[in-house]
Design goal:
By secondary structure, the chain is mainly α. It has one domain. It contains eight helices and two strands, in the order αααββααααα. The protein has a two-stranded antiparallel sheet. A hairpin with a 4-residue loop joins strand 1 and strand 2. Helix 3 packs across helix 4. The protein is elongated. The two termini are about 40 Å apart.
Amino acid sequence: MQPVVINAADVSQWVGKLWWPSLRIGGFIAAAPIASEKTIPNQVKIVLTLALTVLLAPLAPVPSSLSIFSGAGVLTAVQELLIGVAIGMVMELAFEALNFAGQSISMTMGLGFATLVDPQRGASVPVLGQLFTIMGTLTYLAINGHLLLLGALANSFQTLPIGVQNIDRDFLLSVAIWGGRIFETGLLVALPAVIALIIVNMALGVVTRAAPQLNLFGIGFTITLMCGFLVLLMGLDGIMVGVTNLIDTALRAVVELVGTPAAGAH
């Protein structure tokens, strides 16, 4: 029986087939919604990265000439991390926009003092910002956004091959443009409520000028708070439509960023 001979070149090639995809997937896990939450232990993130690497590695062609311990290998490793972070970060921007929209409404209606500890960010955020983030998360899961995001990550190994210079000015410009569009869509979610509350504050200002003896701090805060809750209640359907459009815009941004696989690619 002939002994099995394993040389260093074969071992390096086997390691490379898992090493390069794991960098992109690790960057994705570090920035993607839900998976990047601080409440998830690092051990779980590592196991998830390894599991996705084993599943997606066959879809990632790796150049045989690409060495891990070389200058080109270091640059490729940095590029793979940045690609994974960019894919996850574009989607995460949608949730940041929702949080900002909730904070804008909270400050306008006088509810900025009501805060909750956000487990994802590890900081206190207004309660409406947390509410909008929860609504966005449930919408994201309901439309299988996490599966679409994983599909975009898998397609990226065909459209943005390993070992090819993929991060250039156009790639960075696309990230910046889509980030602006996502935040614009998030602001549109809060805009109707903010405008309605500004009108209420202007009306209170007119009443105060007409009747200076009224205690604005006594009645103004109560009226603004009640009108804010009324606006949120009446506009809940519109808010949900805006949240859905925001998540859809972020998913389209990821697909646009990654691109479409060429015909016949497997």
